[in-house]
Amino acid sequence: MSLQDRPAILNDKEFRYDSFKNGKVLFNKKKNHLPAMGWNSWNAFGSGNTEALTKDIADSIVRLGLDKLGYEYVILDDGCYKPERVDGFLANEEVKFPSGFRALADYIHGKGLKFGMYNDIGTNLCAGAAVGTCGHELDDAQTYINWGVDFIKVDNCYYLWDNATFSDAKNARYTYAPKIKSINVCGKDAGIDFCKKYSAVSDGEITGRGAEKTEDYVWNIGTFDGTGPDNTPYGEQGGELRFTVEAPSDGEYSLTVEYASAQEPGCGEWLQVACNDDVIYDDLLEATSDKDTFAESVKMSLKLKAGSNVIRLMNHRRQENTLSSYAALQEGFDKYAPDGDIILSICEWGKTQPQDWGYKVGDSWRILNDITFQVGADGDPGKGNWIADYTTSVTTQYSKAVIMDEYAGLDKGWNDPDMMMIGMNGLDETMCKTHMTMWSMMNSPLMLGLDLRRVEKGDWIYNIIANKEIIALNQDALGIQAKRVFTTVETESPSTDYIREMDRVDIIAKPLSDGSIAISFINVSDKDKCGDFAISAKDILDAIGSKMADRSVFENAQKYELIDLWSGEKTESNGSFCVKEIAACDNVTYRVIPVQ
Q1: 315 FRET partner, CA 20 to 30 A, in 6, 285, 413, 552?
Q2: List of residues 6+ apart from 579 with CB closer than 8 A
């Protein structure tokens, strides 16, 4: 692929929106990885990471014994390359990384750890270096293999085909269809006497979500931007305009579209047209003089069958383009190391709803924008929030990830609510303990983001990140994300409703491979909570029984042993699990073991 004025042509149906649910991976993407565990440099050092700091962190992981607990990846985030390519290839920043990345990988591998790096599907990295993978995917894949990379995090800044951070807003032209006023279908074959105009408003049907009818036209045909915390991940993430055409006979017909285009959210220039599920047009339309002046499109050829035919006008390119860009790097890994197994972390901030397609190429996918923008530096731990209005908090990330369990699994990959902020300013010990619990219960990647040089065995940070029983939930072989089964906020469906109200208590339950389950009572609020926060064995069976390792054993238990995974205290229950008091931002988490 080379840089061009438009996204790649999609000749392979596997990259199409209609194939997102078929369960097929692309380019030999490996399955059955448990969530990755390790350390990433961004929250700790931002762009200021160095070779020396990275070696210190690798040494600290081993010193603290965190490698024995599963923390195996040491990942360089942004700020490690030269600002531009050298003869078209990636190169190390020589002051900060004087020995080069192969030597650093060898050092990390020598510690029994694995080495990770960072890039972007756009032209530049988020910090500005003009070394994004766009147009260089195959070369970069071979470079990473040569460097001994085991893990690659790939961001989404400066992406050419979407309205990404730091990008030109005009690239919305690629992600929205134009305004549609009508279509005109006419027979082309001799003997077909048919020509009919269909109004978008009166004859068209909107399916999915997002597209809207006005008095004269349909617009906002595209895919919801999932970067912020306002859109549920469930349901169709885009809208289509559909027409049912009754054709008099089989044959060749022509289609024209009456449209008005622009380069702004809600009204773009790229249109996809499908007839009976065959895509017949997928390209930019000629720009109209302004967004309120309608024109007639080029003629499009289509085959209709006698009787009912469905013509779909849409733009799913926001998702399809992003999938294609990530897949291009995976293609390179498969080409140059088909037996290799490099973990691909998709970091496009949930913008293109990666829960729908991420499993095809990646091992995890970010679900929102960054968890913090106040990253640290050498000697400065940075700052995190428990509650915030946008994405920059533990609870905002949790509140979306907790309802996305149906999108995760060993056969798919993992929802990623970003790196953990344990050890940063702004979060106390209780908040960090619950943060660790949330991420572990939700099978999120456990990526530490603090300067491990200041951690000692036995201090409170160590006791949180080294809690074997909590880590075991995240790394359980059954590989099933916890489901929210109760919340104190009134809602129709606790497991799928996106709740922005943080003044609440949630109960989430997770089946485990030994037949037990884990239950977490989580006080999302920053206020102490008192009440009968309770769930029964029957409630749990109704919610996650089909996913249990052995439902019958749990269902027929005479009693249940409860182990508090933070205090170690053991109690028993006859099938009702209740907590009456939970301190602000705290959690009570049990492993519940059925006893016959």
Answers
A1: 413
A2: 521, 533, 534, 588
